[in-house]
Amino acid sequence: MLHHYFNNHKYILIACIALIYILSGCISAFEPVGLKDRAGLLVVEGVILEEGTRITLSRTVRLDEDASGRSADVNNATIHIIDEAYNAVAVAEQSGHGQYIVNDKFSFVPGMKYAVDIRLGDSHYQSAFIEPVPAPAIDSVSWILNDDNSIDIRVSTHDPANESLYCLWDFEENWELRATYFAPVRFDPLTLSVIPQSYTGDNRYYCWASARSGSLLMATTEKFRDAVIKDHKIHTLRPGNHRYSYLYSINVRQYRLSREDFAYFNNLKKNVEESGSLFAPQPTEIKGNIRCLSDPDETVIGHILVSKAATSRLFIPMAELRLNHLEGLPDCSDMGQQFSAPFDAYYSGYGIWGGGGGSYIYILRRCVDCTQRIGPGSPSKIKPDFWPNDHR
Question: Which of 161, 266, 296, 356 is buried deepest, with most CB atoms within 10 A?
């Protein structure tokens, strides 16, 4: 859930740590006094859900180390979700670099508390046992078009008992995009042949992309008389990329935090965004609820939530609303290049735009192949199961 907020900072000691979601940022390189021993700390973050549990393991690195790759990811751990009777109720299997997910759905037992149990070599780690906290229902997820053609995504919720709310949100975006032009044929590098395309069959005209939330999204009603959160902005779309291409969707997931959870994440957010350091002012304030059972003196950073999330999905039909002109199409003026064969064109970055009988007109491949579109989300031909049209 929180991995992407920290992943781009790559666990830099004076900037932040890699946890579950992504927030871009950079900071000038220097080594604060007293932080030399902070490299190599285990970072554990995640949320235990009945469906969709994700855990991320990583280690802090020094600023003078190479944090541009995946050197901070922690792999080959054995992770179980356990109940307070120490029964293993689910296994989190590794799905990527430092990423672990529970593939099987399981159900919380009312009144039971749950934790994450981690075995890493000879080391044994465990989160605190927590009873799942049901999230209040999401009243609405809405959007508004601003004067600069950006789009604000907003969420509303309330507590029926009018008790103070501490909310955290994350989301997943999905969108359909299209190539600038539809080409009736394309070169297939697997068969080394020119094959036909159709709107209703095999093509590189329709694509889909996805992304996850990129910041800690929190709000509280603690200082207000009513436990109502109205039109709280959680995301902004900005024109000039292919999110605006055709059809956009966002699935918002809402968690109810305890006051202690909120204090942890709020302190972490302030440390990273205001002071520029994960460890300012005091490391002990942000250690969270993870401990090392095999070595009680080992410092472990991170926080595990246990929650019953509320979700709500929103679709924005960009093309129907005539917002697709804001997507920022690639420059397709480079047309008519001459190549001796489609093979040569393909490996020079060009695709077939028209022609036939061996005499083809070529154009930059990203103009006729949506998988080559430059922008967020790594466009692909993988269509979400929930997508509401029959494009393929």
Answer: 266
Dihedrals φ, ψ of 233, to 5°? -75, 125
Residue 131's Cβ-side half-sphere holds a number of Cα atoms within 13 Å equal to 5
Element (H, E) at 265: helix 259-270
pTM, 2 dp: 0.81
Backbone angles phi, psi at 228, to 5 degrees: -130, 130
Task: Tell me the backbone φ, ψ of residue 260, rounded to 5 degrees.
Answer: -70, -40
Judge whether 311 lies within some domain: yes
Plot region of 279 (φ>0 → left; ψ -120 to 50 → alpha; else → beta): alpha
Sign of CA dihedral 165, 166, 172, 175: positive
Q: Sheet holding 151-158: strands in order across?
A: 138-145, 151-158, 228-237
The total of structural domains in the chain comes to 2
User: Considering the domain boundaries, does residue 164 fall inside one?
Assistant: no
**Same domain for 129 and 66:** yes
Residue in 253, 189, 353 with CA at minimum distance from that of residue 51: 253
Note whether residue 211 is domain-resident: no
Decide: 217 and 388 in contact? Cβ < 8 Å: no
* Residue 80 CA to its chain's centroid (Å): 23
Taking CA atoms, 6 is separated from 13, 62, 68, in Å, by 12, 15, 13
Give the Cα separation of 314 and 38 in Å (integer): 42
Q: Which of 358, 352, 357, 356 is nearest to 335 (CA)?
A: 352
Amino acid at the residue 70: R
What is the per-residue pLDDT across 332-384, written as a single tens digit (0 to 9) for each?
988 878 899 999 999 999 999 988 777 899 999 999 999 999 999 999 999 99
pLDDT digits (tens, 9 = 90+) for 223-234: 999 999 999 999
Tell me if 37 is assigned to some domain.
yes
For tokens 């670099």, the residue is: 97
Three-state DSSP class for residue 148: coil
